[in-house]
Model the fold of this input.
Amino acid sequence: VQLVESGGGSVQPGGSLRLSCATSGFRFNHTAMSWARQAPGKELEWVSGINSGGGSTYYLDSVKGRFTISRENDKNRVYLQMDNLRVEDTGVYYCATTRYWGQGTQVTVS
Done:
């Protein structure tokens, strides 16, 4: 099983980033996916989730209206479009299933 995040980087407040997670080794189109983040010195925090078919999405209150989760089941990929980024969005972002996690990608907003 592999989950590989990409797309992180450094942006100014108000900027945008699109995270991507490439997966393999499990039945992606049968699996709900999530994004979580960990800010420096803070606990891991769930950010967003999407069901296996992509028809239902869920968000942490603080990112609603700014972040959009999506998936492409034919490509085994899940995405997180992040707009109007804030300093407090800084952290390492992970894509995950209920069993597996990626290694994360750093997002810095400053």
In short: The beta strands are 2-6, 9-11, 17-24, 33-38, 44-50, 57-59, 67-72, 77-82, 91-96, 105-109. The CA atoms of residues 11 and 109 lie 5 Å apart. The two ends are 34 Å apart (CA to CA). The chain has a mean pLDDT of 97.
